[in-house]
Amino acid sequence: MSTIKMIALDLDGTTMRSDGTLSPGNRAAIEAARDAGVNVVICTGRVESALPDEVKNLDGIKYAITSNGSRITDLHTKECIYGDFLSKKALRKSIEVASENHITIEAFYDGLAYIDRELYDDIEANGCDYRNREYVLKTRIPVDDIYDRMREHEDCIENINFFFPSPEILETYRSKIESIPDAMITMSFPVNLEVGGPETSKRKALEALMKILNVKQDELMCIGDAPNDIEMIKFAGTGVAMGNAWGGTKDYADFVTKTNDEDGVAYAIEKFVFGRK
């Protein structure tokens, strides 16, 4: 019988297909794991309000780790049971870097995502080559001045995202962003860099949740595709990288499953939870 008692699932590029939907195969495997008594936990860079309904509303999924580990929410009670936020020093330096270099940013707090109104309106009217228009309009809240909004909530900023038109342009600014003090810098996509608290990570949040649920390290399976998943994949008793994983993520995995468009999550669950493949 499997010793896996918890599965931590990244969303984009992992549990969700490239078109942003949950496949019937992945849904069935998640539900089967749940029925076998496994805690299935969402573990994503997304802010809580941007969780897809078809995942969030699956019966049996109680906990969501969001904003790259800044927040754990009990989805049944809507209570935030863990928070790990940016320092004021990191926040202020992030604003300085963004404003001086005219870099697009957005900020997460209280489970919501905020973006400058001028940028939101431009994406609504003209689309965006490097971001999904519909996703931005559905999940981001426009504000008149993103910097002022961040300063007003400097005690509870979960995450700051810097976005770039291309990976090449990102690289020209990487050193500036990585020099932000008291911060953990990671990325979910090839065109963004994300700023969290000094020790914020999916791994750290998982450790906190595992203590609550009395789950041991060798009873944890983590599945992801991107650099922000590496720490949890390394930490897990069973670390799984997607077939479409990038940024060196596969190098840290115990197993590489199929891609997100080939039900790679279901394949890993079948193999390691049920021993069927």
The CATH homologous superfamily of the largest domain is termed: HAD superfamily/HAD-like
Structural class: alpha/beta
The CA-CA distance between the termini, in Å, is 14 Å
Outline, from the CA principal axes?
Answer: globular
Number of continuous helical runs = 10
Uncertain stretches: none
Number of strands: 14
At the fold tier of CATH, the topology name of the largest domain is: Rossmann fold
Strand order of the largest sheet: 5-4-3-2-1-12-13-14
Q: How many domains is the backbone divided into? A: 2
CATH architecture of the largest domain: 3-Layer(aba) Sandwich
Q: N-to-C SSE series?
A: EHEHEEEHEEHHEHEHEEHEHEEH
User: Which CATH top level class of the largest domain fits?
Assistant: Alpha Beta
Rg calculated over all Cα atoms:
18 Å
Average pLDDT over all residues:
96
How would you concisely characterize the structure shown here?
The protein has 277 residues and is α/β, with parallel strands linked by helices. The chain is built from 10 helices and 14 strands.
Defining key terms:
alpha/beta; 277 residues; 6-stranded mixed β-sheet; Rossmann fold; 34% helix; Hypothetical Protein, Haloacid Dehalogenase-like Hydrolase, Chain: A, domain 2
